[in-house]
Amino acid sequence: MITKKHLLLALTAAPAALALSIPVQAQVAGIATASPTRVVAGSKAFAAAQQQISTTYKAAFDQLAQRRQALANELKPLTTQLDTNKDGNVSDAEIQAAANAKNPAIDKIRTAQTNAQNDIARLGNPAARAELFAIESVLRQYDAAQLRVINARKINVVLSPEAFMYAPDSADISQAITAEIDKVAPTVSIQPPADWQPSRDTLAIQQQLAQIAQMRAYQQAAQQQQGQPQQGQQPPAAAPAQQPAAKPAEPR
């Protein structure tokens, strides 16, 4: 976050580029790996959904940025009270000392953070829910797309990347699955029905996308500080990690 792009929704991998024309020998003894998260991240539909969400919820993103700034302004004088050695940082020891002394600033900080979190969740939930619906809509195409890749490449087994201690890049068919999805579903809706609730798998993938986006943002910031060029990087997509995730009453 905390621009709209970062705020919404987080991790955009490079678009799928592998075609089904890659020879069967590229797979390792008929065994391949695929990641639903990578497939969603690289799909045209998810990228388009992010752009649409960025536009549709622009006012909410602006309010989120303002609320975060308001929290920072509110916390600054309170944290200054805890910074007893005046080094510009509040250490764990200083926090513990303030708590032991029952410094009222501690309770004020907690209250301010709780209020801000509630406001941020309220403002960010509609956009997070729209992203979740887009993710789940892409995932509905996953099984059929994977089967087409399996048949074309004569693959016998597909495992998750976590199941491998080592595998060559050619064993990963995520981009090939993405390419198949792009053919049949280049766009998806971001408007879920009123009674729709995301599945647990969808929530997990949104979290993973947010983590990837956050890590990418850190890497970009580090490169900028070092004066290194951004090589072959795409603009960061809106990231769920930078915004509050939707809070369905009961995920399926």
Supply the key terms.
252 residues, two-stranded parallel sheet, disordered C terminus
| Rg over CA atoms | 22 Å
| SSE order | HEHHHHHHEHH
N-end to C-end Cα span: 28 Å
* Order of strands, widest sheet: 1-2
- Count the E strands: 2
Give the integer mean of the pLDDT values. Answer: 83
| Major sheet description | 2 strands, parallel
Protein described:
The protein has 252 residues and is mostly helical. 57% of the residues lie in helices and 2% in strands. The chain has a two-stranded parallel ribbon. The radius of gyration is 22 Å and the shape is elongated. The two termini are 28 Å apart.
Describe the protein's topology.
Layout: H1 4-7, E1 31-33, H2 36-42, H3 44-56, H4 58-82, H5 92-100, H6 104-139, H7 142-153, E2 157-159, H8 174-184, H9 200-226
Helix pairs in contact: 2-8, 3-6, 4-6, 6-9, 7-8
What would a concise description of this structure say?
With 252 residues, this protein is mainly alpha-helical.
